[in-house]
Amino acid sequence: MSTITLFGNRLSGHSYKVRLALVLGDVSHEYRHVSLHLPREEREPEFRAASRWDEVPALVVDGVPMVQSNAILQWLAESEGVLAGQPGERQGIREWLSWEANRIGFSLPNLRYSRLFSPLDPGAEAWMETRTRRDLDVLDAHLAKQDYLLPSGLTIADLSCSGYLWLIEDAGLTLDAWPHVAAWLARIAAQPGWEPIATLMAPDFHE
Fold first, then answer.
1. Alpha helices of 1-121 — where are they, by DSSP H?
2. For a tag on the chain, would you pick the N or C end, based on fewer CB atoms within 10 A?
């Protein structure tokens, strides 16, 4: 059995989607919280050695590190069989992972960061909100036709695209205008073993 350690943070939707995949896939692992309040040079050496760009999440498998949440999800699907879908769906999963990285996984976290931590220029923030709403329109239209992003059911694509949606209220938005997205999140939350980000990513100390 592999020894797996995940470095993440409770404020990171990208960390959450990886931890959720590990939990829902029943993959034995250790979770280690990384304080992002600390200057980079003061973060624990094991994390800095594991994270090429000093970002969360980072996953270490038998001493071998890997980074970038969607790349980690792909490894979990391909190597551990976690929420991998059907063989004919692999291209569809790759497409959704790439869409997430370029669209909702970019627009929503930046809008949230602007409204929660460090305001962007008003024009830039308005652009991020418009972009986020368009991304939600895309998801809602797709999910009006089926329960999950791929026909076979829950896959890593769903965990990827939903990662920051659990934190959408931090960005000053709700899902009232996107009922199919809200229903999709409810289906994910009904999975055995699912926990909200506040508890699943909680550090064992006060930050």
1. 13-24, 45-50, 69-80, 90-102, 104-116
2. N
Q: How many CB atoms lie within 10 A of CB 68?
A: 17
127 three-class SS: helix
Spatial strand order of the sheet with 58-61 comes to: 30-33, 4-8, 58-61, 64-67
Q: Whole-model pTM?
A: 0.95
Instruction: Give the bridge partners for 65, in sequence order.
Output: 60
Where helices occur in 82-170 by DSSP H, the ranges are 90-102, 104-116, 122-143, 156-162
Helix (H, G, I), strand (E, B) or coil at 115: helix
Residues 6+ positions from 17 with CB-CB distance below 8 Å: 69, 73, 159, 160, 162, 163
Give the model confidence (pLDDT) of 183-200 as tens digits.
999 999 999 999 999 999
Enter the DSSP assignment of 119.
Answer: P
